[in-house]
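FORM 12-B: Structure-to-Sequence Request
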């Protein structure tokens, strides 16, 4: 369990440090953006009032909603991580997905609580792919849910199948 807790902590630290650095760096840039690859990838400073892809930002959802949702997500993912069998090496993808989900939820929850306006700091702007700006915590959530779903849909059914030796049938 320790490696997954360390991974989670490291990712949250990377998220928070990268946000702090980008706020400092981009605050001095014209239009709060810095082109890394012009027209494709920029560092762009925005403060997201909503959830994923800015959804709900204009709806004026209360801060309590974001805090409760974040705490519930962290609690549920942590519960599933702690209750598993870490001796079973086949579960490493499952554990990785949960660690990423915890890190992502925690990184954005910290912004909601610590930032004066309770908005999430976003700065990764892939203009050549889509119009959404995101951060390291968002990447952890996106990759984490993908890894988790791959585990649950593809790997878990294989783990549940009884092996020929343990089925008790002789051929």
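FORM 12-B RESPONSE
SEQUENCE OUT:
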């Amino acid at each position: 369990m320790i490696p997954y807790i360390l991974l989670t902590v490291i990712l949250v630290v990377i998220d928070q440090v990268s946000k702090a650095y980008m706020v400092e760096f981009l605050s001095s840039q014209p239009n709060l953006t810095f082109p890394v690859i012009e027209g494709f990838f920029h560092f762009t400073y925005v403060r997201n009032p909503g959830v994923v892809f800015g959804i709900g930002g204009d709806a004026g959802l209360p801060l309590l909603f974001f805090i409760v949702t974040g705490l519930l997500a962290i609690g549920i993912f942590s519960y599933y991580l702690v209750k598993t069998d870490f001796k079973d090496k086949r579960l490493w993808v499952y554990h990785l997905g949960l660690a990423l989900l915890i890190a992502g939820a925690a990184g954005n929850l910290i912004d909601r609580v610590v930032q004066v306006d309770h908005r999430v700091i976003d700065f990764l702007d892939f203009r050549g792919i889509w119009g959404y700006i995101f951060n390291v915590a968002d990447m952890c959530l996106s990759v984490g849910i993908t890894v988790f779903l791959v585990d649950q849909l593809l790997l878990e059914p294989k783990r549940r199948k009884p092996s020929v030796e343990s089925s008790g049938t002789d051929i």
